[in-house]
Specification:
By secondary structure, this protein is of the alpha+beta class. It has one domain (14-140): 50s Ribosomal Protein L17, Chain: A (Alpha-Beta Complex). The protein has helices at 14-31, 38-55, 60-70, 73-86, 125-140, and strands spanning 33-37, 95-102, 109-115. It has a three-stranded antiparallel sheet with strand order 1-3-2. α1 crosses α2, α1 crosses α4 (73-86) and α2 (38-55) packs across α4 (73-86). The longest helix is centred in the first third of the chain and has 18 residues, at 14-31. The mean pLDDT is 90.
Length: 141
């Protein structure tokens, strides 16, 4: 039974796990999408979502709380300046995990984790508007 076991341990000691998750979070904030194993992606989602929620309210206290987890000035700056502006109206669910198959070397299940509002394929409103305009024009003719 797994009563009272909240965090995913990933086969690492606490300090290594926290450092790895902080590095992966900074990479996610910089590149908006990273590919990793499915278990690490799930652990990263649990780590990142509260930080993004804190970034919605830009205060010195929230910046310090996020810095204590990330330990990187550039990552905190990206989070508060760029990412929080884009997700300001979203109530939650800031990341998306997409399974991408198995890794060649050890057959580990891989997943791509991305920030939802930064995906240009699904959230491309300009292309959706042009498609709607084309449908309206063809219907009027």
């Amino acid at each position: 039974m797994r009563h009272g076991k909240k965090n995913i341990k990933l086969g690492r000691k606490t300090a290594h796990r926290k450092a790895m998750l902080a590095n992966m979070a900074i990479s996610l904030f910089q590149h908006k999408r990273i590919t990793t194993s499915s278990t690490k992606a799930k652990a990263l989602k649990i780590f990142v979502e509260p930080l993004i929620t804190k970034s919605k309210n830009d205060s010195v206290h929230n910046r310090r709380l996020c810095f204590s987890k990330l330990r990187d000035k550039v990552g905190v700056q990206l989070l508060f300046d760029e990412i929080s502006k884009k997700i300001a109206d979203r109530p939650g669910g800031y990341t998306r995990i997409i399974k991408v198959g198995n890794r060649m070397g050890d057959n580990a299940s891989m997943a791509m984790i991305e920030l939802v509002d930064f995906n240009t394929i699904y959230n491309n409103t300009s292309s959706a508007e042009t498609i709607e305009e084309a449908v309206v024009e063809s219907a009027s003719e």
